[in-house]
Amino acid sequence: MRRSCWLSQGGGMSRTVMLHTGASMPTIGLGTWQAQDEVELERALEAALDAGYRFIDTAYLYGNEAIVGRAVRRWLDEGKGTREELFISTKLPMMGMRPADVPEFLGASLTNLKLDYVDLYLIHVPFGMLRDGMERIEEIVAGEVGSGALDMDTDHVAIWKAIANVLADEWKLQLSLLTQALEAEVEAGRTRHIGVSNFNERQLARVLDNCTIPPANQQIELHLYLQQPALVAFCLEHGVTVTAYSPLGSPGSTWLNTAGGLQLPDLLGLPEVREIADKYSKKPAQVLLRHIIQKGLLAVPKSTNPDRLRQNIDVYDFELSEEEMRRLDALDRGEDGRIIDMLLIEGVRDHPEYPWVRPVEKNSEEEDGET
Questions:
Q1: Which end of the chain is more exposed for a tag (fewer CB within 10 A), N or C?
Q2: What's the Cα-to-Cα distance from 102 to each of 36, 94, 96, 311, rounded to whole Å?
Q3: Helical packing angle, 271-280 and 322-329, nearest 10°
Q4: Of the candidate ranges 44-58, 106-120, 337-351, the one whose mean pLDDT is the lowest
């Protein structure tokens, strides 16, 4: 059954979004992608928890779950808060996209995090890799992951739920078993919610149409230049909350300038953003985050700087006008604004579950279809 999701009490100023279970998820979390320096990240986590962050996002592939786990355990052991106050999310890696792999990878994440359960377990990307296809995300950055690492039989419903009696072919049966594997982890209490990341509308619809436990959240790249309004609307219409990663334009991903040949956008320096920031005596990053959460979405900005950490969560004492929201909405560049396209993985564009098609590619495909 598909259903809508909504903000918890407080409307646009709310600090939480309500999930389909009735649980609350903080609208601003701490992103930890590319944060692997042990001392720096532990200090950042301590500063974030002290500043009021209660949502921490990590992933098996980030290679920092153990660091997150130590910092969280210390905070709990010192009596600064309770486990129930926290919302911890992590992700199933692309080389674990088979039903039998789910318990093992989630178990490894729980061991790393020193937790009995996570609040949200996401499928990291919609395409899978062979079990020995890669081990660390740095291999992708270094261009060391070849096309031979891809598992071209990735099947989402198999991760989510078993409905073999209504599925007609082996491909769909495999997908249903993978779906069942994730749902089994909810039933076992090792994760409170399950969700997806980087899925397109078609892929998410397939899961929604074949699940017993619906996705609670979809984490996608989302910022001023890539606002994905159609996908966001589809998610919200069907009760799936949306978390923005790289909400500030991923200014720390300088390696993409050389490895991917991409010029990173300077969203923080845009005149429209700076003008609004000056009006409210806020930082540009606070305006970018406010623009996201005011739409009922969530965001996980990454920072290890204590001052910026505090600024990033200080976004609840001002509200953008409708005209300011429209001005920022108008900066959307669609797929041309995408930063993270995974193309450093050789051959990934040929995977049947590669989720993105740029406008020029789409037009080319349509022309080919006409001839």
A1: C
A2: 24, 11, 6, 37
A3: 160
A4: 337-351
Helices (H), 253-338: 255-259, 271-280, 284-293, 306-313, 322-329
pLDDT in tens, 202-221: 999 999 988 889 999 999 99
Dihedrals phi, psi of 250, to nearest 5 degrees: 55, 55
* CA-closest candidate to residue 226, choices 55, 35, 359: 359
As a whole number of angstroms, the distance between CA 98 and CA 287 comes to 40
State the pLDDT confidence band at 338, using cuts at 50, 70 and 90.
very high
Helix (H) or strand (E) holding 232: helix 229-237
Bridge partner residues of 196 (DSSP): 123, 218
Q: What is the CA radius of gyration of the chain?
A: 20
Q: Rounded to a whole number, what is the largest CA-CA distance in the chain?
A: 68
Measure the CA–CA gap between 191 and 218, rounded to whole angstroms.
16
* Known catalytic membership, residue 225: no
Q: Which of 137, 341, 357, 140 is nearest to 221 (CA)?
A: 341
- Structure-block tokens of residue 257: 């300038």
Closest C-alpha among 208, 193, 223 to residue 295: 223
Bridge-based pairing of strands 55-57 and 128-129 is: unpaired
Question: What phi and psi, each to the nearest 5 degrees, are found at residue 66?
Answer: -65, -35
Identify the active-site residue in 62, 121, 245, 354: 62
Q: Are 67 and 46 in contact (CB under 8 A)?
A: no
Is this prediction's pTM over 0.90? no
